[in-house]
Specification:
There is one protein chain. By secondary structure, the protein is of the alpha+beta class. It is about 50% helix and about 25% strand. The protein contains 10 helices and 12 strands. The strands form 5 sheets. A 4-stranded antiparallel sheet has the order 7-6-8-9. Strands 1-2 form a two-stranded antiparallel ribbon. It is elongated and about 90 Å long. The two termini are about 15 Å apart.
């Protein structure tokens, strides 16, 4: 897949994910008869809009997100007595919690479905199906045995000597033991089984027998039940890794790292935090659609976890307020949380602009090399 096509696919996917996130807030609010005043994709100046019933739908100039305006969630807009029964604050705590949680939940569902699809159709890595990733043109002062025999990148090795379906380790060990001795290598190429004869030679750089190929893991597909189970486990594992990672990124260590990158002489590492520009660059470098979808699944889980941080203006902040009101049995004056919202939003904007700048002037190295 070309880098430009991958980036376009990724951008369209992100916009679709935003739409699904906001549609979930919208749909659950409507389910509980809460009035939704606006449903917009993007921010800034209005580009296009249309009113259907009590809701205005539209698109704004900056495609940096989206929002739904639910009646009663603006702390500075007092509803009339007639409007109050259909406002957010008038509903039971469990309904308000579901309206808020519906948005972040979509990211975990999307990631889960992507992983199910990858496991069931694209397959999972398997060391028992070694694949040739590269073929050296020369080795030991002459053409490499693999190149001379006609082996190609993409060939899946299914037999070597008398070993059927060898693992990568078995293939390497067999090659070392048979330097100077010809043996048969069977591969699957474009659905056909082909057999070649190779004679390993000593690689003068590594001082061991080789035929001149770079190996990688092949893939095997799994059944629907296994795909669902493994996707659920993978979603949980990645979620836990993201939670730990967020603590590092926004903690003293992460902030000092960004400052050092901005004003010191530090170089970017693949493990450094990145912005949408950095993710887009990684997508453009991805060698396959499977890798692009893997990135999309990871980004969805990251966004889902980020949205659940229990601070305003994140959805998790609204959930925290609902939980507090349920436990303390009294309403929170949301106007008092506006300064907290402003501080969190300002920090997030400064942090992300800093990382965006770093992604432009100090790009993260290609993680696929």
């Amino acid at each position: 897949m070309s880098g430009s096509v991958a980036v376009v696919l990724f951008v369209v996917s992100i916009l679709l994910v935003i739409l699904i996130h906001e549609a979930a807030h919208f749909g659950v609010a409507k389910l509980f008869s809460i009035k939704v005043e606006e449903f917009f994709v993007g921010f800034g100046p209005r580009v296009w809009s249309i009113r259907r019933g009590e809701t205005e739908y539209g698109v704004k100039a900056l495609p940096l997100g989206g929002y739904v305006r639910i009646a009663g969630m603006n702390p500075f807009q007092e509803p009339t007595p007639e409007e109050y029964p259909r406002t957010f604050g008038a509903k039971p705590a469990w309904q308000r919690a579901l309206v808020i949680f519906a948005g972040p939940a979509t990211h975990f569902v999307i990631a889960f479905l992507i992983l199910v699809g990858l496991l069931a159709f694209a397959g999972i890595p398997s060391s028992s199906k070694p694949v040739i990733l590269s073929v050296d043109s020369r080795l030991g002062g002459g053409p490499s045995p693999a190149a001379a025999a006609g082996l190609r990148p993409g060939d899946e090795i299914v037999a070597v000597g008398g070993i059927d379906h060898p693992t990568e380790g078995q293939l390497i060990a067999f090659t070392k033991r048979h330097v100077g001795q010809p043996f048969a290598v069977s591969v699957v190429r474009d659905g056909r089984r082909l057999t070649f004869t190779v004679t390993p030679v000593i690689d003068p750089r590594l001082h061991k027998g080789r035929i001149g190929v770079g190996l990688g893991e092949g893939t095997v597909t799994v059944g629907p039940t296994t795909a669902v189970t493994r996707a659920a486990v993978a979603t949980g594992n990645v979620s836990w890794q993201v939670i730990k990672r967020l603590g590092q990124v926004f903690g003293p260590q992460g902030i000092s790292r960004v400052i050092d990158l901005l004003f010191g002489g530090a170089h970017r590492k693949p493990s450094d935090v990145t912005s949408v520009v950095g993710v887009g660059r990684a997508v453009s470098q991805a060698p396959s659609l499977t890798d692009v979808l893997g990135i999309l699944a990871s980004v969805n889980i990251f966004v889902g976890i980020l949205n659940l941080i229990p601070l305003p203006p994140f959805d998790g902040g609204h959930l925290a307020v609902v939980a507090y009101e349920k436990i303390r049995r009294r309403k929170v004056d949301m106007r008092k949380l506006v300064p907290v919202t402003a501080v969190v939003a300002a920090f997030l904007v400064v942090f992300m602009l800093s990382v965006l700048y770093l992604d432009i002037v100090k790009p993260i190295p290609n993680v696929f090399r």
